[in-house]
Amino acid sequence: MARAEPQLAAFVTDQNNDVYVALFDGKAVELAGCSSAGQAKRLLHLPDTALVAEATLAKLQAENSFGAQPRLPCPGTAFNIDWQATTAIWADVEASGNYYLPSPSGTGYFAVPTACAEIKAALAIRERLQLPGVLQGFAAPPNVGTPFVLDCGRGDLGGLSDIAAASVARWSLHRFETFLSAESIGDTIYVVRYTPPGEGARPSYLPIARLDGKATRDIIADAAAAEAAETKLRAFFGIAEAEAVTLLGADAVAALRSAPFVDLCLSNCDGYQREHAAFAQPGIDLGLSPLSAGLSITSLDPLGNARLDWTFAEGRALSFTGCPLLTSALGLSAPGIGDWMGETDRALTAAPPPGTSFDCRGSASDTCVRRINDGGTLTLAQFSSEGDCAGRANLRLELPASVKTPQTLILKGLPFKTVHMAPAPGVARTRLVGTANRVPAGTSSCILSATGVIIVADGLSRLELERIDLSRAADQATDEVVAVIAQNGAVALDDVTIGTVADGLSPMARGASLCLADLYARGLRVEADMLAIQGVRARLLISAQAPVRSTLVRARFGAVLTSDSLMRMDFTDIAAANPLVLRGAVVAGRSDGLAPTAAGLAVGSAIQLERGSSANFTTSTVSGFRCAVSFADSASSASFLLPGNDIAHDNTSQACGPGHFSLVE
Description:
Elements: E1 7-12, E2 18-24, E3 27-32, H1 37-43, E4 52-54, H2 57-64, E5 72-73, E6 89-92, E7 98-102, E8 109-113, H3 117-122, H4 125-128, E9 135-137, E10 148-149, H5 162-166, E11 170-178, E12 187-195, E13 204-211, E14 214-215, H6 216-220, H7 223-237, E15 246-247, H8 253-258, E16 262-264, E17 277-278, E18 289-290, E19 295-300, E20 306-313, E21 316-321, H9 324-329, H10 340-349, E22 357-359, E23 367-371, E24 394-399, E25 402-405, E26 409-412, E27 418-423, E28 430-434, E29 437-439, E30 451-458, E31 462-466, E32 468-473, E33 481-487, E34 490-494, E35 497-498, E36 505-506, E37 510-515, E38 518-522, E39 525-527, E40 531-536, E41 539-543, E42 550-562, E43 566-570, E44 572-583, E45 586-590, E46 593-595, E47 605-610, E48 614-618, E49 621-622, E50 627-631, E51 637-641, H11 647-650, E52 653-656, E53 660-664
Parallel strand pairs: 1-4, 3-5, 6-9, 8-10, 11-15, 13-16, 21-22, 23-24, 24-27, 25-28, 26-30, 27-31, 28-32, 30-33, 31-34, 32-35, 33-37, 34-38, 35-39, 37-40, 38-41, 39-42, 40-42, 41-43, 42-44, 43-45, 44-46, 44-47, 45-48, 46-49, 47-50, 48-51, 50-52, 51-53
Antiparallel strand pairs: 1-2, 2-3, 6-7, 7-8, 11-12, 12-13, 13-14, 17-18, 19-20, 20-21, 29-30, 32-36
């Protein structure tokens, strides 16, 4: 049987969506549900370097019988879209090495080689064979004839694991053949592609129509000018010299027709007037139209990163996170953030759609990466700015599955803007087990006496922890220990657990203490005996992505906020004897839950307010307390809009004390 290794093609629908197609010996098979070229290549076991040919629906129908063959489903698409679950299967695994399925049309057979693991999984071959009556035997059908072989390539899919891919973002430089005007007979321009972390993530494209005042189609036509331009672009975007400048295929057409074709200025830019352009009607217009200035605003993302959003046309925008050099090269600027609480609400509800975001943080040109091997320890020496980190703005520490800190990490006086700690590529999570030393009371205004601490960040602009379980070693079990103290800076916790108790570990007394600091947490879990979160003149944004929720549990106090602190919490549950204590603080929440540590006799208050504090919750629940809300003064207020439970019924009293209570449902 002749082997029919597939080729990959794509066409763009009238709705400007990409459809991926496999060509087996010239016959077209739709890859249903594939959202990216990467997904299609993985399904067909093709290497990342495989090209995607540009096609049209009419051409595929006329020349490749598109629509006459059953579809292959991509992950996330039903396995039985064309073959019913009980379709007969012949497992000729010994002789031909194929599984055979009858054609849905009733004529002939399709063969799936046993080596094509992704196609077998897409069609659920293993699961089908468990159903009664499906397996017809261990030989080919007697009338098999010449089957249609749904073969796969033999590309190397080993590479990075899914976990590793999820932790790596990539910038790359390409060329792209297109038509910039109705009169054009073909133009080749430069395109920068940003691929965010995550399996199957949709890349974002920045087509560069002009560079330093010259059209890139003219630059590319001159070999010497092209080499100089590519060197300049590599240096600017932090792209390795060894990475080839490849030609983009049809998989990028739809995204590029919707993107702005930018005028990028990297040198001698004083007074330079940029000439950005775009297709006014993607998929319809035959040429670019000049863009006006558009609208640029500064915003936050859920982890507190500053972001510039550029709306360049009605309904179309790009987002740049940590990209001041790039936005400057594009001639974009925007005023800073004014209302922090208002902006946090927008950060949680107005995320940019996939394929329109660029993240410049941690580029190779300004980030130092240090990896700790299995069995190593995390000490202050790894935070040094000397040697390989000299002159770098950011530090990334890649950690093994388990690592210990033999003493308190006091991160003070570091030259880095950002310190990021995360599992090394290929590691799902890291358990960081800290041994706490007592730090003097003057170390932070959050502590009034010598206290054991795992990590102290003082004056560090930004400390980031990602997919880390921060635990306490089982020594000095009677001492009070705080997991993280932050002062005069920001802490970002992404999918972090604090205080997990297991064999060989001791409980944490307090989770995080913030003094004149910001906390941005997504998917946070804190277990603490005394106090989960403390904030003194602090700002806190705690959120999660449904159905996962952030949780503060097992504490006497969930969060104690004082001195004009601000907090927004979404999809967060606090299970504590006293979930929220506000002393001159403001809290806003959505889809949150406040409950005591254990069900039983209703005592205490879910929210305690004094010194003119306010709390406003939407679609949230409060149950199991003597007072849902208690006020120490008349200047404090609390409101619940569309609560998720009957607050009056599920608590002994709705409100206690002289403050203003509002319930709207």
